Amino acid sequence: MAAVAHEAHGHHDAHGHHEExxxxxxxxxxxxxxxxxxxxxxxxxxGVVAMLLSILFRIQLAWPxxxxxxxxxxxxxxxxxxxxxxxxxxxxxxxIHGTIMVFFLLTGGLSGxxxxxxxxxxxxxxxxxxxxLNMLSYWFxxxxxxxMFGSLFVETGPAMAGWTxxxxxxxxxxxxxxxxxxxxxxxxxxxxxxxxxxxxxxNYIVTVLNLRTKxxxxxxxxxxxxxxxxxxxxxxxxxPVLLSAALLLMMDRLMGTSFYLSDIIVGGExxxxxxxxxxxxxxxxxxxxxxEVYIVLLPALGLSSEIISTNARKPIFGYRAMIGSILAxxxxxxxxxxxxxxxxxxxxxxxxxxxxxxxxxxxPSAVKVFNxxxxxxxxxxxxxxxxxxxxxxxxxxxxxxxxxIILADAALDITTHDTYxxxxxxxxxxxxxxxxxxxxxxxHWFPKMYGKMMNTRLGYxxxxxxxxxxxxxxxxxxxxxxxxxxxxxxxxxxxxxxxxNDSYQQMMDLNVIITVFAIVAALGQLLFLFNFFYxxxxxxxxxxxxxxxxxxxxxxxxxxIHGNWPGELPTVYRWPYDYSKPGAEDDFxxxxxxxxxxxxxx
Amino acid sequence: MGIKLITLVVIVLGVLAIAxxxxxxxxxxxxxxxxENEISNRxxxxxxxxxxGFMIFMxxxxxxxxxxxxxxxxxxxxSVHGHDLDWxxxxxxxxxxxxxxxxxxxxxxxxxxxxxxPGVPAFWYPHNNKLEMVWTIVPAIxxxxxxxxxxxxxxxxxxDAGKEAVRIELFSKQFAWEARxxxxxxxxxxxxxxxxxxxxxxxxxxxxxTIDLAIDNMEHGPVxxxxxxxxxxxxxxxxxxxxxxxxxxxxxRKEQLVRLLYQMRNGHDxxxxxxAWDDFIQRDTLYLCKGQxxxxxxxxxxxxxxxxxxxxxxxxxxxxxxxxxxxxxxxxTTEDMRKERGVEDFNFMLLCxxxxxxxxxxxxxxxxxxxxxxxxxWLSTKEKATFWDTFNTEAPAEGETEENPAEENQENT
Lengths: 602, 413
What we know:
The structure holds 2 protein chains of 2 kinds.
Chain A: H1 2-14, H2 22-27, H3 32-62, H4 69-79, H5 87-123, H6 131-150, H7 181-210, H8 223-254, E1 265-266, E2 269-270, H9 278-312, H10 319-332, H11 348-360, H12 362-376, H13 385-408, H14 410-416, H15 420-450, H16 456-482, H17 496-499, H18 501-538
Antiparallel strand pairs in A: 1-2
Chain B: H1 2-31, H2 41-69, H3 80-113, H4 129-158, E1 166-173, E2 176-181, H5 208-220, H6 225-233, H7 241-266, H8 273-277, E3 280-283, E4 285-289, E5 294-300, E6 305-309, E7 314-318, E8 324-328, H9 334-341, E9 348-352, E10 364-370, H10 372-380, H11 387-393, H12 405-412
Helix pairs in contact in B: 2-3, 3-4, 5-7, 6-7
């Protein structure tokens, strides 16, 4: 199999240098490097949109009822009459912010970008198993991004049922106006997105299994590839379940079925639907939803493993334990979904089972953290911007991870469920960690993707503003949640202000602090955007192996060519983490260097 | 408009300025012949120090927040199981805060200490099975403790309520709560959403009379089958095709519903009625008795809501089409709580904690917890406000006896 693939690529390579048209090179490209870059730029755009949405609703939360020029500038008179955010649009902003961040930035952007760029390059393959499917995967992603973005401009507003779109709220336009056309577009967009994700994931899996170069055994693969591989498997197994959940919801909305609807009177109208269960939707949704957390997180952990090892100039500690942890996390992620549903009325005994399985995930996660820390121990750390972000990731992974122990405990979830404590928890552990991993990845592999260097100083400034801003936003948010603030509340004076003024004051003080930090952190991202686009066009030319790294992608020429390596594919003789190996001349030994006489493979 | 233009100009000029600075910086580093990938010792050390500095900022911020807002950021619980949950939360917090401090300290301290020093190579240390066993087994043991403690509390909090528990139904709809007390027999009467009548039977309780009322309303009410048929068949009324279509659908739906109502009527057992007639409905305020266990049965009229009692440490979703339950025993009166907190106007409350639409954030109910004596006084005012009373007094239907069958029934048993 592998031999056939090699021959085919050899043939391909002979024709690889002819002039390509603009369209086939930059638009409908089948080259994995270009597709990776397309994913990245699309995701960056969507990420900026989602970040802006979050700033808009943070303004409302910090200064409720006060007129804001920013709000009227972006939302106009319809959604922010007099500069005050409308209640419906508040829910719309929250919903679309969550959806874009989780699916478009951290799934499409993270896994889509780096799986595409790195899998063939780090495995020594000419391209993905199917370049055409890979291209389709991107264009589906693009279309779904357009649909989701477009739904913001619909007259009745975007989807407003929260990113989890629980029916009946999401099924009934009478219940909230966003459940009309806005929700239809949401469902359509996600359907296309799932198709994109499936095509992409299948391609990644096939490539990893079949197109590794000579000598690249599974246990010589960089941890990035292990992470992308397990992520792709999780995606293939769980996204179809979300598709089925979405299809059933579509049928309830359009064809009068009763999968999720039963005994409802809404807007004075008595519906005939009987026998459905909204809980069914939640089971289906979270059967994807929980693995999705790891679909977001694992690639970030994989990238940071590579970055930390390279820049600490040390082998990653416990390579096999790291692989084991990735596999364990991947497996466990499928049997924990109902911890999102402890207080939905699900049988409490079932809840107990999920408490047990959920807390088990803490073990492989702890192993990973300790392994990262031990990798740093007695290292010789070089602070590239990528390294800073990777260390930031380990910190947020710890900080967000420990609060997960509270939420996984069903008894404690009774009081913290759906409060800002949850919001803080998952933003830190999933949002920040994944975003830090993504930034780290961009800074580290930018020379490979664009052949240029990003500015280091701007990278430093970007990191410190982001880290301080991020903790400044989410530390206080835990305390807002502990004070009892429910999430997705437009404001708190109508409830807490009325009944429990102590807690109300606490929430309001902290909400102002949070919003200020959020705005600072958001402005900090301008440094990144500037650095990113400026460096693409004007950055200094990158050397071939800027970080003195071992992995195969740095053996390719700086100028991109179709087929990656000009001559034969490289052969691999060792694992990717031979940094500072005693007896070696340099502090790194690329994977293509044969073992010296008498040298042991780690 | 002027401000927007100025903002735009400032942004553009800012970007240009940064771009120029970048050029200068790049040219100078070109002269020094260092690429962006060569990190100078100065930069390395600076970032290493920042790592340590950030750790102090982070730990300090965290301790400051605890200092200001208290350990768990909220007052004491006001229910029996709430105290146990708070204890469990404290135990868990101590564990996770220790882990948080320890691991973050190691991370940032190592980041600070092991920054590159010229001439000092990194230490080759690819694995150590013993060490890895230790940090697999130690978390496993700690987690076992957490799981056992947690499941014990969970079992107690969600176990069945005792026989002596008072049954109360909490009914949720966009965007209000209503409570139904089970009355003298402590049995909540059965319900069916098809019997909902906004004025007379808002909670859709089942009795022969309410079934008849629903059928009558469905057939002859203001938007009932008769009136729809009349409109559709009357040639003098001009309807747009959309409206006509909508009405046809409405008619079909109502015909289906009325068929189901007739089925219900045929199978109805009169003996059930008394359980419903002695219930009473309470809007706006929920009165509870200190020291009394309550089993709440939750229902929803339209979408999912969540009954959230922050001070009682209780929460349960309300789901259309099914009944969910949660029990708790308040152990502080509203007065106790006001004294404890030193706040005059403190009140317990019931909130909605599952996104349910536009006014989600305003959906609430006042809760007042009373001493037994005061509670009984309040209860006695409700004796003449049972479902039987409200159903019959507001607009008496034809041919009904003035006798209260609920009372009659109770005398018999």
